[in-house]
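Recap from last week: sequence in, structure out.
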Amino acid sequence: MYSYNRSEMCTYENLAVSRGFKFIGGMDEAGRGALAGPVVAACVILNKHTIPSGIIDSKKIGDKRRRMLFEMIRSTAFCIGIGFVNSNVIDEVNIFNATKIAMKRAVDDMMVKPDFLLIDALNLNDISISMLSLIKGEEKSVSIAAASIVAKVWRDDIMIGLAQKYPHYGFSAHKGYGTVFHKSKLLEFGPSEVHRYSYKPVAQIQEIWELKKQTKRPL
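Predicted structure tokens:
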């Protein structure tokens, strides 16, 4: 029987296997809470024979370890898909819907489609794949944890790239999240085109900048 040999965090994978599913994809996202940049989703079908050890929730490990695991997952996984939604679309549809769009795009990006999905805390109601949503899924499923690592590293690299185009904000350090430094630079330079204007901290600073523009206009 096709089953996951590791017992650690494989309970839900093996439950799916026992019900006849073969390609179990773990799904997670990165960037929901950021003030700038895209939300990125990853779908990972692990190879049952080559699951790297040490895969846990991406938030519980540092960047060096996360990147090492990312390379191990990428070189051993059966299939990986990536989907992302940019900040302007997030502003249009809200982050909840944008996250679901990113997840659907991640599935569409896969060369081998999963027949069962384990998803961290979301349901994708309009795709024809069986699924199970798990609260804190990255702590319960090795597949979701692997997806959390892939999504996090992929998004971090996007933000490092954006730091070259928008050097004032320090994206390479905080990856677009609302740190004190980031907010101070937002106040100093105003929001950029990759900021999320529907998020309250960005909207408030944008209002301040609009007031500044008005006071500079000649009478």
